[in-house]
Structures are given as C-alpha cells and as structure tokens.
C-alpha cells in the first residue's frame, strides 16, 4: 500500500464536495491576462468596455477557468495522486467576473469508475462551480480527472 499522496481514486466518492475561498480579482490581473490571451475590447479597454453590454471591464472566461484551476490545485489537487485529465466536457460562463469580485470554488464528485484496462488508475467526473462574493454562480464546468489507485490490485468498490 502506498501513501505518497493524501487523496487517491478511492477518496473521491460521488456526492463528495470540497469548497475553498479564492482570490479577489483585480482590474490589473484581468487586463494582463486578456492582453496575452483574449484581447477583446471589453477585457482590455475601459472606454470600449463601458460602451459594451457589460458596462465595464470583465474577466475573460478563460481567465475564470484558469482561476478555477488554481483554486482546484490549492483545495486538493496538489495533494492528490492525479495523473492528469482526459478533458473538460462543459464550461458555462453564467455571469461576468468584474474587478473586485472575490471568487470561491465548490467541487462536487459526480461519479467514478476504475479503469478496466489500467488497474492502477481510475476516472473521476467532477463538477466545479465558481461563485462571486454575493454567492452568485459565475461559472460551471464539468470534466474528468485521472487518479492513481491506492491499491491497484484490489477489487474496485464503486
């Protein structure tokens, strides 16, 4: 039995939730990220952003995804026997993230399955919900994480 990590495939049970407070997003961070990766005017130009349907600078959705990833790492992933991901199934940006918003993350395990072809690993489907300081859902995302099994030879309890 190995115990190199705190969390393994076996620790992710359907319905399990992890919550973590995240950062307060600054205007400077929004503009810096968008300038590099998503330079649409409502992300980088205050005057044009005021004229847009958002009436001010907002974070790129991809910035919000990156912040979600950081909160995921801080909450559990860096302590997990993660071996990567096969992808994200869905991302929805439901409300703009604005300068001064304080984000929080709630991860929920949706389902898990031990790999039949690779007994040393299992697949976990997650849902990540990101909220602002007013408890408003700003982003939801579902995807898959791949994790090492604590006891690769043991029968998988699912």
Give a short summary of the structure.
The protein has four helices and five strands; from the N terminus they run E-H-H-H-H-E-E-E-E. It has 158 residues and is of the alpha+beta class.
What does this protein look like?
With 158 residues, the protein is α+β, with helices and mostly antiparallel strands. It has a domain at 9-25 and 73-148: Thiol Ester Dehydrase, Chain A. It is built from four helices and five strands. The chain has a five-stranded antiparallel sheet with strand order 1-3-4-5-2, covered by helices on one side. The longest helix is centred in the middle third of the chain and has 15 residues, at 61-75. It is elongated and about 60 Å long. The mean pLDDT is 95.
Number of helical elements: 4
Query: How far from one another are the termini?
Result: 19 Å
CATH topology of the domain at 9-25 and 73-148: Thiol Ester Dehydrase, Chain A
Architecture per CATH nomenclature, i.e. the level-2 architecture of the domain at 9-25 and 73-148? Roll
User: What string, H for helix and E for strand, traces the elements in order?
Assistant: EHHHHEEEE
What amount of the residues lies in strands?
35-45%
**What level of helicity do the residues show?**
10-25%
List the uncertain runs.
none
Major sheet: 5 strands, antiparallel
Q: What value does the Rg take, in angstroms?
A: 18 Å
Q: Which oligomeric form is depicted?
A: single chain
